[in-house]
């Protein structure tokens, strides 16, 4: 009798929802900006999902799963169709995608720092 893994016996991926979104995006060599454009949200929203500061609504989660080639169940629970990660961390395309993502994060953080610094400057006595 053949053994079939199912949701009750499969070992779940222990990463967070954000970690799984990020890994699936990296496996497709897509930038945060590309993913955001595909599902109609701001790049900051995708970054918040990937850093577990917020979670996508169900309709966005299903859209993400569809074009990232994973199941919604894998994104949510770590069980089901996961991305094909052919040593993405070691391949040139995987590294390039990670560099693009880091540059996007750096730009967004720089803008946020400037904004916060201007708020502090306005609050400080003259």
Please report the first level of CATH classification, the CATH class: Mainly Alpha
User: Measured on Cα atoms, how large is the radius of gyration?
Assistant: 18 Å
Principal-axes geometry comes out as elongated
Order of helices and strands: HHHHHH
CATH fold title: 434 Repressor (Amino-terminal Domain)
User: Beta-strand percentage?
Assistant: under 5%
Low-pLDDT segments, ≥5 res:
1-8
Given the structure, what is the number of helices? 6
CATH superfamily: lambda repressor-like DNA-binding domains
The CATH architecture: Orthogonal Bundle
How many separate structural domains?
1
Offer a quick outline of the entry.
The chain has 126 residues and is mostly helical. It has six helices and no strands.
Blueprint of the fold:
Layout: H1 17-27, H2 32-39, H3 43-50, H4 58-68, H5 72-77, H6 92-123
Helix pairs in contact: 2-3
Task: Tell me what the structure shows.
The chain is mostly helical. It has one domain: 434 Repressor (Amino-terminal Domain) (Orthogonal Bundle), CATH 1.10.260. 60% of the residues lie in helices and 0% in strands. The chain has six helices and no strands. Helix 2 crosses helix 3. The longest helix has 32 residues.
